[in-house]
Design brief:
It is a single chain. This protein is an all-alpha fold. The protein has three domains: 54 residues; 349 residues; 84 residues, no CATH class. α9 runs parallel beside α11.
């Protein structure tokens, strides 16, 4: 794009030269003053320009800027001026602050020169002047802050922000990509050096986040796609360093003893909010699709920013409730952003999947920070039901998968996993883990969501997401029902009947699932039936044979064999 613009500018300049020569010649003819070599030179120039214009090819333009050697000479003079200010400062002729001020004014003059050259179309001169401003200002800030200690870190951060922004603004206004790269890498590298040298990690992490956000939005305008990566990586690494030092066992090192847990959490969350908010604003306001950088950077800021804030809160022992509420609020915003693309085409579906997945992760994290045990299970049951109902209502398979994931997460705090494992694998005579109200609620919700998933699927071919959701929901419902059935049988049957009771429940579950496949045409039910039989055979030979009595094993083997025959026969039948 830049090469085409340069070519067009050259052609326009050639045409302007030709028109100016023709106007001068016409004026001379009208005044009768055309004479001598001057006329011949102008005639030749106008003829050449006119011929080039008629051919549609720009004539070789005259040099509009300084020659390469002149540019090199200007560069050496600029660097020499910087060393003059340094020599005067080190010799004591100028006080440190005065030398710093004059050096920054000198760098600012080169920035103004870059803007002036860019406005005049002299790209080489503009690039050189911008590079000179960075070459003067960045080492000056480093030495006056680290070696001379004449400038406090806050002042260095403010000046670095101003210089980087000014040079980048010139680059953006005049479309100078190389200057933009130099300004970004120079400012980011200097900020990282000052971060390590001054131990003011919070201050310069904020500065790096600001650089990252500014670079992100600037690249949206100029499409300098590669430029956003180094700024984002620098900000992510700074936050990770902050999290590591702030959550270090025994406290941060002595050099970083001034770290504040509250400020660290704020900075970590700021990274997440700035980038995630920018991505949401771009996709919603500009109706654009998420790109590769936004997907990777969202994952990075979710781990480094929000995950880092949670780690810092755990280390400090406070603030988890606030982070949990913040996660739920951000989750609601992410789901709202996802529904902004509800009526769009397949590309909009990509954005819907992106923001809804972000909302899922935030909701699971926020719920885990705010509640525990059965209370958390009921919260996730509500989330799962809501996601499944909305997915069936608006035809979004991703939300049906979200419902299954919420209920799968609810199996842990509700005790459903523990109850099912205890029902089928606990040693004979040990104390069982009973199912509670939360476990029953999870199992019933899974059965309801499975019905929604199958009914929504209808005659359409089932996708991988729909099949996965149905399989998970059936497994949860079957685990709850099986655990409850084992508890009832063991309670009413005589002692020593646990082995055949468990096998009977597993066999009945496998046959019921195989029959369900034939009745409804849901192939996942058949897969789960064979999975149940596989688990039953493993339990039979690993646990029951060493522990069971001959009579109990006789009943267990017979029941398992009958189940194998029934499932095999049902598996050969076609569904309606």
């Amino acid at each position: 794009m830049t090469d085409r613009v340069d070519l067009l500018e050259e052609r326009v300049a050639a045409l302007a030269t030709a028109v100016a020569a023709l106007e001068t010649r016409l004026a001379g003819l009208e005044r009768g003053t055309e004479s001598g070599p001057r006329v011949r030179e102008e005639r030749e120039a106008s003829d050449a320009a006119g011929a080039a214009a008629e051919a549609g090819v720009a004539a070789p333009p005259r040099a509009s800027g300084a020659a390469p050697m002149a540019l090199a000479g200007r560069a050496f003079l600029g660097i020499g001026g910087a060393y003059l200010f340094r020599a005067l400062t080190e010799a004591g002729t100028l006080p440190h602050l005065a030398g710093v001020a004059l050096g920054l004014v000198y760098a600012g003059a080169w920035i103004l020169a870059a803007e002036h050259s860019g406005r005049a179309g002299q790209r080489a001169e503009a690039t050189l002047h911008a590079f000179l401003s960075l070459a003067v200002a960045l080492p000056l800030l480093w030495e006056t802050t680290v070696r001379m200690r004449a400038l406090p870190p806050v002042g260095a951060a403010v000046l670095l922000l101003g210089i980087g922004a000014a040079v980048f603004a010139v680059a953006w206004r005049r479309d100078l990509a190389s200057v933009a790269w130099a300004a970004t890498l120079g400012a980011v590298g200097t900020a990282w050096g000052l971060l390590l040298a001054t131990a003011r990690i919070e201050l310069f992490t904020l500065l790096l986040i600001a650089f990252g956000a500014a670079t992100l939005w600037a690249t949206y305008g100029r499409r300098w796609h590669g430029l956003r990566w180094p700024a984002a990586v620098a900000a992510d690494l700074a936050v990770l360093t902050l999290v590591y030092l702030g959550s270090r066992p025994g406290g941060p090192p002595q050099a970083y003893a001034g770290l504040s847990p509250g400020r660290c959490v704020f900075v970590a969350l700021l990274l997440f909010v700035v980038y995630a908010g920018s991505f949401a604003a771009r996709t919603l306001a500009r109706r654009r699709d998420v790109n590769v950088f936004e997907v990777f950077q969202t994952a990075a800021v979710l781990a480094a920013g929000y995950g880092g804030a949670v780690r810092l809160s755990n280390a400090a022992g406070t603030g988890e409730g606030v982070l949990g509420v913040a996660a739920l609020v951000l989750s609601a915003l992410a789901y709202a952003a996802a529904f902004g693309f509800l009526e769009r085409d397949a590309a909009g579906g990509r954005n819907f999947l992106f923001f809804s997945s972000l909302g899922l992760v935030l909701a699971l994290t926020g719920g885990g920070l705010l509640a525990t045990g059965p209370g958390l299970a009921f919260v996730w049951v509500l989330f799962g039901l809501g996601a499944a109902v909305l997915g069936a209502r608006f035809g979004r398979r991703s939300l049906l998968v979200h419902g299954a994931l919420y209920l799968l997460a609810a199996c842990v705090p509700s005790g459903l996993f523990a109850a099912a494992l205890s029902a089928f694998t606990r040693p004979v005579g040990s104390v069982p883990v009973r199912m509670g109200a939360a476990s029953a609620a999870v199992a019933l919700a899974a059965a309801f969501c499975w019905i929604l998933t199958v009914r929504w699927r209808g005659e359409e071919p089932a996708g991988a997401g729909s099949r996965l959701a149905a399989l998970v929901l059936m497994a949860i419902a079957a685990a709850g029902a099986g655990a409850g059935a084992v508890e009832l049988l063991v309670a009413f049957l005589p002692a020593g009947s646990a082995v055949p009771a468990r096998t009977a429940v597993l066999a009945a579950a496998a046959v019921a699932l195989a029959a369900l496949r034939v009745r409804t045409g849901v192939e996942e039910a058949g897969w789960l039936a064979w999975g149940v039989l596989g688990g039953a055979s493993l339990k039979l030979f690993v646990q029951d044979v060493p522990q069971g009595s001959p009579a109990a094993l006789f009943a267990a083997f017979v029941l398992y064999g009958l189940a194998l025959l029934a499932v095999s026969r049902l598996g050969r039948r076609e569904s309606p």
